[in-house]
Amino acid sequence: MAERSQTAPEAGSDMGNDDAIGGNVSKYVVLPTGYCGQPKKGHLIFDACFESGNLGRVDQVSEFEFDLFIRPDTCNPRFRVWFNFTVENVKESQVREIVDPFSVVLRVIFNIVNFSKTKSLYRDGMAPMVKSTSRPKWTQQICPPWMIFTLCCLESSCPGKCGTQTRQRLPPKNVYYYRCPDHRKNYVMSFAFCFDREEDIYQFAYCYPYTYTRFQHYLDSLQKRNMDYFFREQLGQSVQQRQLDLLTITSPDNLREGAEQKVVFITGRVHPGETPSSFVCQGIIDFLISQHPIARVLREHLVFKIAPMLNPDGVYLGNYRCSLMGFDLNRHWLDPSPWAHPTLHGVKQLIIQMYNDPKTSLEFYIDIHAHSTMMNGFMYGNIFEDEERFQRQAVFPKLLCQNAEDFSYSSTSFNRDAVKAGTGRRFLGGLLDHTSYCYTLEVSFYSYTIGGTTAAVPYTEEAYMKLGRNVARTFLDYYRLNPMVEKVAIPMPRLRKGKPPSYKHSLLRGPASNHPNGKGDKKSSVNHKDPSNSF
After folding, report:
1. DSSP letter assigned to residue 275
2. pLDDT on residue 485
3. Which of 442, 461, 462, 486 is catalytic?
């Protein structure tokens, strides 16, 4: 690495202090010190002014080294993890040079210098994601170490033929995560990259992006299929008026007036930078709406309520953990504000409404997250004074461990940490009765291990979705519905007739005790303070 100048920035300069970062760079051209004139080829252009983008500042250290600053979450400088930006206008001297099959010259070093995390999977082999315009898919490819330095290998000499491959993680040997005295002792992730095509625009990201727009297009495509067991409704809106979608997946017979319901409630993306959550959630949805015999049995016996994106503003803005107004929504379940936390408020009120309905048994709540320091998928559960209830709570994770090779029961833990008191798992675990179980499902940003081996298998988008499918399948085992699968034929899907039934959202405006069908005084007068304090 080049030596940085120790000269302090001028007083009042916005570029001299990363606390001053207030927005994303927009087609920012990096010019050499003292250069005057129009930008030339090789003066790199950085951009993050697009949906879910994040890059707040760029400093040039040398011709081939750049310091990059993550833009903190809006209204909250504490969280600096997610990045997503493009680089273009590279020149020939910055592209790769292959002298022989075992000699690749690395041309550019990027240092992301203001991470807020002290621990990171970057120390365990994780690397940034990369794609380019001529190779637009986000995939990974196993290649020999001497080839994987670059985005695209030589097809003629690569066993994996990754000349046609479009995206991969950078090799871990070119990625370093360390604490740097040059940057106020912040944590720095440095990686080397070699551009291989002058005309391409390259994109780098912390993990596979999953944007709000992609999510809306996905739901639109499902809605157009007009399935009679899939219902989409708008439960509310975010501060910036983005849609809070609620999906209901079940047999229409379960939605008839007066029908008893066993409900599984699933939420995702309360932390916007935890993009694997959306892939897992999509895997759950895709399986449940399929014509697989297991999916048909599950729809006949259960009602799945899914709110896949609790923080649409944070997702759109490229935040890592917070909402537009700087709130970690997963710490505000105790008393969410209808104006500051409208999406969380709407979901909580719906759950309380169902809880107070004598015909509804809310049996599961699962909140899906991604973890930045651990491997595999795993769960967090609650601790109860009732030993029998505590033991029953372990059943679902154990079954999931049998169905999903990437899920680790040994990493699953049950706690009542005070710092987690405002989470959905903790709050609802204390609110709901002994027949309900609340979990946080975590999945690694990076990889999983299989069968006691130590070799890390990097997650792909498909692997995340496969975990979602296995989560859905596990409900069949939990409810012992396996004999029913053999009786199920696979008919053509029925088309919906008329408008789908929807919840009467006018009930959500008042307190839960106003519900006309409450389950008695004990449940209709819900205490919004932390009920887990009594454990």
Report:
1. T
2. 86
3. 442
DSSP 220: H
Longest dimension (CA), the chain: 79
pLDDT digit string, tens, across residues 235-244 = 999 999 999 9
Please give the C-alpha separations between residue 203 and each of 188, 293, 435, in angstroms, as whole numbers. 19, 40, 47
User: Encoding tokens for residue 211?
Assistant: 């944007």
Burial of residue 210 (CB within 10 Å: 0-12, 13-18, 19+) is: buried
Round to whole Å and give the CA distance between 54 and 68. Answer: 11
Q: Assess contact for 530 and 421: CB atoms under 8 A.
A: yes
Provide the CB-side half-sphere exposure for 347 (13 A, CA).
Answer: 31
Question: Which pLDDT value is given to residue 454?
Answer: 81
Q: What is the pLDDT of residues 261-289, one digit of tens each?
A: 999 999 999 999 999 999 999 999 999 99
Amino acid at 334: L
Which run of H or of E encompasses 57? strand 57-62
Q: Which of 50-59, 232-241, 398-407, 499-508 has the lowest mean pLDDT?
A: 499-508
Q: Which residues does residue 168 pair with via DSSP β-bridges, in sequence order?
A: 130
* The predicted structure's pLDDT at residue 135: 86
Q: Are 56 and 18 in contact (CB under 8 A)?
A: yes
Output the six-digit token pair for 206.
Answer: 């912390």
pTM of the model: 0.84
Strand pairing report for 303-307 and 360-371: unpaired
Q: For 432-533, where are the alpha helices, taking DSSP H only?
A: 461-478, 482-485, 521-524
Phi and psi at residue 253, in whole multiples of 5°? Answer: -60, -30
442 is catalytic: yes
